[in-house]
Amino acid sequence: MYMLDVLNRTYAAQHGRQYTSVVPTNIYGPHDNFHLTNAHVIPALIHKASISPKLVVAGTGTPLRQFIYSEDLAKLLVFTLEHYDSIEPLILSVPPESELAIGDVAQLIADEFGIEIEYDSTKADGQHRKTASNSKLMTLLPNFEFTPIELGIKKTVHWFKENKDKIRK
To answer: Domain coordinates of the chain in residue numbers?
Structure first.
């Protein structure tokens, strides 16, 4: 993000062109990449849950993350293209208070498949928090309603089950 910000500022200074960058947090939703090891967190967990009697989660499940439903991100991207005219980067994310533990997300997914969770604590958790502030976004769109993660996961799992034979994996 930082080098892109430098590049945007350089274009503005040298050529008078104004560009910006958007920074989404962890994305999930229909049409995502559901690869078992090279996907975003939620799509990978959904795929794992679909092929195993237990959902095995790497680490302890305690790290916190912000997850944005792909349809919400699409709406925010369209808004940015049509209305955002600042060179300053814009974080497209659910609010920091919507952070959720990986274990809680895994539980929502496991519930959709009717299976249990097993944590593999021999694997590293990674960074405990990666909180991103969406305060600038919320000043521009104070009434934007993000899809509740419970509904987003339900819709994503339903889409996955309906399209399992043709998903990106």
So the answer is: 2-166
Q: Is the entire prediction scored with pTM above 0.85?
A: yes
Tens digits of per-residue pLDDT, 75-97?
Answer: 999 999 999 988 888 999 999 99
Query: In the numeric block, which tokens belong to residue 101?
Result: 């533990």
Contact criterion met (CB below 8 Å) for 134 and 94: yes
- β-pairing, 26-28 with 67-69? parallel
CATH topology of domain 2-166: Rossmann fold (3.40.50)
Give exposure, 13-36, as e/b (b: 16+ Cβ within 10 Å).
Answer: eeeeeeebbbebbbbbbbebebee
Res 3: pLDDT: 83
Q: What is the pLDDT of residues 17-32, one digit of tens each?
A: 888 888 898 999 999 9
As a whole number of angstroms, the distance between CA 47 and CA 32 comes to: 11
